[in-house]
Amino acid sequence: MKTENNFSELLKMIRLGENQTQDFKFEINDSKKIAKSLSAFANTDGGRLLIGVKDNGKISGINSDEEFYMIESAATLYCKPTVNFEAKLWDAEGKTVLEIYVPKGENPPYNAKNTDGKWLAYIRVGDENILADRVIYKSMKNASEKKGLKMKYTRKQDFAMKYLEEYGKISYHDLKKYLQISKFQAENILIQLLSAGLIKPVFNKPDFFYVPA
Predict the structure, then answer these.
(1) Residue 133 phi/psi, 5° resolution?
(2) pTM for this prediction
(3) Average per-residue pLDDT in the chain?
């Protein structure tokens, strides 16, 4: 594994803080937990983990090669499909920081196995890993399988877009109430619109809503 000695470059990255494409980890002690981060980066814009850095940006360093092997286990055993990554070490004035770079995945959705044995997909929103809802999950799957590009535009989809024009955002709750349809039907309409690139998701705790793309 390559070791970088450019301490100023490492500090430059750390000063950016935790964000959409960067996360700090003091240590890795659970491969299943870190699999969630790998899933989120692969499903969104890619990103890097800096291991041996505290949440406040203070460098603590790692103590052994165990961190790398836990990442490797997370990527291969607890992510499906396997998440690709690159690793390098940074010499931080006597302390070692492990950088794990995860590129944006080519075959989403990437699922992580949780402590209950369930496979779940996450996306990166700001500095958080958020569980993908059914709309986002299915649209990622459609994109990976090259589906949804020849969508038949229906009246219900037209009503959804008119609702968006009037109110600026929509959720499956709104659509369900507006069209008097089931949750499943409302989600399917949003899946089709998202797969066609007509809307985009925005996360507002605790739910996602959708705005014009």
Answers:
(1) -80, 175
(2) 0.91
(3) 93
**Which pairs from 173-176 meet CB under 8 Å and 24+ separation?**
173/207, 174/209
From 76, 59, 82, select the one nearest 10 (Cα to Cα): 59
pLDDT, residue 151, reads 62
Instruction: Dump the DSSP string for 93-134.
Output: TTEEEEEEEEPPPSSPPPEEE-TTS-EEEEEEETTEEEE--H
- Is the pLDDT score of 22 beyond 60? yes
Quick check: 103 pLDDT over 80? yes
| Total Cβ atoms within 10 A of residue 97 | 23
Helix (H, G, I), strand (E, B) or coil at 204: strand
> Which SS3 state, helix, strand or coil, does residue 160 take?
helix
Q: Is 17 helix (H, G, I), strand (E, B) or coil?
A: coil
